[in-house]
Amino acid sequence: xxxxxxxxxxxxxxxxxxxxxxxxxxxxxxxxxxxxxxxxxxxxxxxxxxxxxxxxxxxxxxxxxxxxxxxxxxxxxxxxxxxxxxxxxxxxxxxxxxxxxxxxxxxxxxxxxxxxxxxxxxxxxxxxxxxxxxxxxxxxxxxxxxxxxxxxxxxxxxxxxxxxxxxxxxxxxxxxxxxxxxxxxxxxxxxxxxxxxxxxxxxxxxxxxxxxxxxxxxxxxxxxxxxxxxxxxxxxxxxxxxxxxxxxxxxxxxxxxxxxxxxxxxxxxxxxxxxxxxxxxxxxxxxxxxxxxxxxxxxxxxxxxxxxxxxxxxxxxxxxxxxxxxxxxxxxxxxxxxxxxxxxxxxxxxxxxxxxxxxxxx
Length: 362
Prior knowledge:
- The chain is α/β, with parallel strands linked by helices.
- It has a single domain, classed as Luciferase-like domain (TIM Barrel, Alpha-Beta Barrel), CATH 3.20.20.30.
- Helices cover about 45% and strands about 15% of the residues.
- An 8-stranded parallel beta barrel has the order 1-2-3-5-8-9-10-12, surrounded by 8 helices. A two-stranded antiparallel sheet has the order 6-7.
- Helix 10 packs across helix 11 (about 325-355).
- The two termini are about 30 Å apart.
């Protein structure tokens, strides 16, 4: 972690609309949107650093345009940074994507970021006239153009999948000198290497299992960035993960299990699998050694610190509203994250930094 870079903590939502497993009721897209805006305002007031909104093009998700939703959030907040989690760059026109987030940057006073990714579903490909046969080529070309747009006010460019640009004026320009751009990486070395070569931030989506398996990706990312000549201070790593906090770890697991199991039941059903998670499987996923952030504030801090030892990352983003979780439980999670987890985490990281600077005398 760089000397200047503070450790950032935030939350994000994919805006899934699922039934509450305890009541069987499913809220409307309107209510889901209202609750996302309330959560963002609460996160800002509580002092969290980031709020993210993801992109999907399905009736069981409420957000298809993160930039529009984040612009509404910008008007209701003052300090919190606003990011997409993620923008499906493969099927978005890079010019439109950049201009939308540059506009958000103006509205928010310089708080906009872009998380670029491939997305969990492929419905955007036929929707916007693309073929999944071009999956990798589209991502690479669109990322290349997006970075060029971010660096230059006037762009000349030629590619395979969109019309060429000839001295095109790219407007508006953001408040920030350049928009911070990150790439979301799931688990493939090639994705980590690409992020490093491009010199953008890498956000690891760690949804379960032993976090040690992601360490090679971080090493690949940083080495690729150094080999490409990028300043190591610019090679930032973030971690994202499902999170639920309660006063005790047992209470957290008891409260969260129905919603977590429900979430994977309908997500797997969307992918044609539809298997239901047992309580025993959930217990394994939520054990102290794993990446699932479920437990007391102390347990959450311990897991973040263990991952910090592995990755040296500079931000953590918690996804806290999945599986039909009612808003009052989301609200409680935001408050515990901001008032309990963040102070303990900052204290521990400050102590770690202090110890690293203290010479050892034999």
